[in-house]
Amino acid sequence: MLIGRLNHVGIATPSIERSVALYRDLLGATRIHEPFDLPPQGVRVCFVDTPNSQIELLEPFGEDSPILKFLEKNPAGGQHHICFEVADIHEAKAEMEAKGARVLGEPRIGAHGTPVIFVHPRDMGGVLVELMETPREAH
Ligand code: CO
Fold this sequence. Notes:
This protein has about 140 residues and is α+β, with helices and mostly antiparallel strands.
């Protein structure tokens, strides 16, 4: 496995609307996508494009949202995960596990419509790392 492009930085927020305003009004972001719900993952998502990557704003969706727990500890929101692209998600999962890192669950379709896994922050120096199969047509 080879670490690929930084696809996005995931940011948990109690309000996508307020976070969008920060990226737009303070930082001057102009490419802000339409928010959408991702019920299986318990999140509402909004992508903000930057010249070389994306910010993934994550708001809780539903009562079992993993973002709710995060916001209990960080009420104002904060950096939640970073996402790197990999060529093959199943290979990446097998290799992570062979190297002793805990992978959270099975590969599932993420917000970009491609399969993703998450590597436990305890095995990644405190950082929740998402690995995402490189989108076929994007690059
Ligand atoms: Co993500």
